[in-house]
Amino acid sequence: MEEFVRDYLTASVESEQDGGRMRWYPWHSAAYRFNHIRNVVELSAHIASEEGAGIDVTRVAALFHDIAKLEVDQDRHAEEGARIAREYLTSHEEYPSSFIDQVVRAVEEHSYQGPVADLPRETQCLVEADILDKVGANGVALVLLRMGYESRTHTDAPEMIERVLERGEEALDRVESQTARDIAHRRLKRARWFDEWLEDEIAAPS
Ligand SMILES: [Fe+2]
Fold it and tell me: Are the C-beta atoms of 25 and 149 separated by less than 8 Å?
């Protein structure tokens, strides 16, 4: 199943005529997207096991949640991902239809911007993990990578890391489960440390 998702992402990038500006950013690559998906699979399964949600539904939904991200527009990727997940699950092995329905629903609703408490538990675990993957040390690494693509100098880093901190605060506001809140606190603390260390080491702008 993992291989199917990785191959799908690779084929999406290879078949595009002109990916436009976004194609140069690391998050437009199949490698980045697949790594993000694996992070979300692990994180969401951890949250599900701690919070008593269905681990298998959560893992499979996390695996498919961004499968269409490089192929269609952002506002359609959840719906398209749900369609691909249904097609895959109904044509491979004998998954119970209730399992397939739960997975498909979670993929379809993972872009929901309202309160996560409105969602079924498994979808909630997926949404929380998706939010958490953009904060903390991983968020810092991604923003530094982006600076390289934008030819910025490292003196811009504190300003960019501020954005990671803001995102971390937003994540804290948005996640509901105690497990996700603990992870958000831990990750935000790491980004704050990095911000402080950096300020300590680089000269203030003249
Ligand atoms: Fe995602």
Answer: yes
Return the structure tokens found at 118. Answer: 């409105």
CA–centroid distance, 159 to ligand 1, in Å, is 24
Kindly state the percentage of the chain with pLDDT values over 90: 60
> Does residue 129 belong to any structural domain of this protein?
no
| Ligand 1 center from residue 129 Cα (angstroms) | 8
Same domain, 105 and 144: no
Q: Does residue 123 lie within any of the structural domains?
A: no
Residue 64: helix, strand or coil by DSSP? helix
Angle at which helices 77-91 and 97-109 cross, to 10° = 160
pLDDT at 121: 96
Contact 5, 64 (CB under 8 A): yes
180 or 139, which is more confident? 180
The string of pLDDT tens digits covering residues 1-39 is: 999 999 999 888 877 665 554 566 767 788 889 999 999
> Structure tokens of 41?
């699979």
Which residues form the domain of 75? 1-117
Residue-wise pLDDT for 186-196, tens only, equals 999 999 999 89
Distance 2 CA to ligand 1 centre (A): 15
Kindly give the distance from the C-alpha atom of residue 189 to the centroid of ligand 1, in angstroms, as a whole number. Answer: 22
